[in-house]
Each structure stands twice: as C-alpha cells, then as structure tokens.
Design goal:
The chain is of the alpha+beta class. It is built from ten helices and five strands; from the N terminus they run H-H-E-H-E-H-H-H-E-H-H-H-E-E-H. It folds into two domains: 85 residues, no CATH class; 163 residues, no CATH class. Keywords: Membrane, Transmembrane, Transmembrane helix.
Length: 308
C-alpha cells in the first residue's frame, strides 16, 4: 500500500514538473520575442511611418473603380443574344468608361415551377439529363430564358456616372433581327389586345342583358331562358382575358426597348482590401523586415556553430 502511494506521488511530481517546464518554455519564448522586437523598435517605427505615408500617397494617386447593378427585362426572346453579347464584351471607344460586364438571371423559383408543372416526372428527368452547364442548375443556359428579370453587374471608371453605366444597353441595340422581332411581337400584341377588348365588351353586354332580363321578368315582362349560361364560368373567362390584356399592354410599353432597365442604377465605389494601401503596406514592410532579421540571425548562429 505504501509502495502504491509512493508511485502516485512520483507521478504527481513528474506531472507538476512537466507543467512547470512547459510554462517556463512558453515564458522564455515570449521573452525572446519581446526582446527581439524591442531591439528593433526604432526601425519598426520608421517602417510603420514610411508605410503609412507611402500607402496614403499611393492610395490617393490610384483611381478607384465603381460598380453598378442594372436590373433588366429581356424582350423579344433575346436572352441568348444578350448573354452572348455580354460574354464577348471588350472595352472599346464605344464604352470607354466601362471596364467589365457580367450578367446572370434573378432566380425566381415560382417561374421555374410554372414551367415544370405541365411536365410529368419522366419529362422532368429527361430535361435534367439534357442540362449541360458549368453553372448551377437554376442559372444554367437551359433555364435562364424562363426568368423575367436579369442582373447586369458593371465595373466602371472612377469618373463615370449612371448614364455611362446604362450606356452599355447600346451593346444590345445593334441587332436588327431582334429589333424586328420586337416590332413584330408588339404588332401581334396590339392585335390581340384589340380582340380581347372586343371579347370583354361582348361578355359585358351579355351580362347586362342577363341582368335586364331578370329585372323585366320580376316586373312581369317576357322571360328569357339563360339556364344554358354558367355565370361563374363566364366571369372567370372575363377575368382571365382581362389579366391577359393587362400583361400584353405591359409588354407593349417597352416600345423599341430590347433590354429594359427596371431599377434606378447607383454607382458605388468598388473598394477591396487592396485599396487601403495605408493599412496593409506598413504591415507588409514590417513583416518582410522581421522575416529577414530572423533569417539573418539564424544564419549567423548556424555559421558560428560550424566555425566552432
């Protein structure tokens, strides 16, 4: 029993000594680091001030690009054409202040579900198998034409204004084919609106006659049989035609606008960490200096040991 207690005491003492030596090692390491820095505090201070000064000068001398976001509607089935034009965009004299352009659909699941609700499971699986895109499924080439809105991200010069950002729309106005498509679509829509308006007027006339007939019957007049008419269905048809007309009128309001901006673009400075040169330049200079000091010190110690 005494031997067992003695072994436990030895293990406890060893543990205490191990913890104590560990704390001593950490304390010695911290002390050496502080001594290493304090010996070089003057040079570190000079590098800090020099880095801040040079960083500010560099920062003020460097132009800061701006970014803008355009929400657009693509008309006349021009989705593929617009995306291709954006992907092949190159800075030119036509767009001197625009540095880069990117476009992606504004994903709306309700629009995708509207497309898929008429398909059965087998047709959906066949469609998914045919999708071949490096982009996420909801932003793939096969689905992007189903979205109403698309987002164009622009990087423009520091001196650019919102008009320069919206000037990118000229990139899409060069296609005579899609301009003709747009004009033809508007012509068809106008004809459909007129037909729908006439149909709504006919339904209204029928409803007025039904109402008048009921009043005359109550007053002792001639009864007209309207039992074959389903009033609820008639009202539903009128409502659906009215909604269709409202949609067609909205489509025709785009005029000759192939790509229509639906938001008010604002320019925001595109500042990254690299922009704040007065912040990272002194840190970089001090880090490089300390690393060089460590390498030189290590080399000197190694050389002295070899000489011994």
């Amino acid at each position: 029993m005494a031997a067992k207690r003695s072994n436990n005491d030895i293990e406890l003492n060893d543990l205490k000594e191990g913890v104590k030596s560990g704390f001593n090692a950490v304390g010695m390491f911290v002390f050496r680091c502080l001594r290493f820095l304090l010996k070089r505090v003057l040079i570190i201070g000079i590098l800090l001030l020099a880095g801040i000064g040079l960083g500010l000068i560099w920062q003020l001398a460097t132009s800061t690009p701006q970014k803008a976001e355009l929400l657009v509607k693509l008309n006349a089935g021009s989705t593929a054409y617009v995306y291709n034009a954006v992907e092949n965009f190159e800075q030119s004299s036509d767009f001197p202040r625009i540095q880069s352009v990117q476009i992606e659909p504004v994903v709306d699941l309700s629009e995708i579900l509207e497309k898929f609700k008429v398909l059965d499971d087998e047709q959906i699986m066949m469609f998914l198998d045919e999708v071949n895109s490096s982009k996420p499924l909801l932003k793939s080439e096969e689905l992007r034409s189903n979205y109403e809105l698309h987002k164009i991200d622009l990087i423009v010069d520091e001196n650019a204004n919102p008009e320069d950002a919206t000037g990118v729309l000229k990139l899409f106005s060069q296609s005579e084919y899609y301009q003709k498509q747009l004009a033809e679509t508007q012509k068809i829509n106008t004809s459909q609106i007129e037909s729908n308006t006439f149909a709504i007027a006919q339904i209204d006339s029928m409803l007025i006659n039904m109402n008048r007939s009921l009043k005359e019957t109550k007053g002792g007049g001639t009864y007209t049989n309207y039992e074959d008419f389903d009033l609820a269905s008639l009202l539903w048809v009128k409502d659906s035609i009215f909604k269709k007309n409202r949609l067609l009128i909205a489509q025709n309001r785009v005029g000759n606008c192939l790509v229509c901006v639906v938001n008010t673009p604002k320019l925001i400075q595109n500042k990254t960490l690299f922009h704040y040169k007065a912040l990272w330049l002194p840190i970089l200079l001090i880090t490089v200096y300390l690393l060089l000091s460590v390498v030189i010190r290590f080399y000197q110690k190694t050389a002295s040991r070899i000489d011994e």
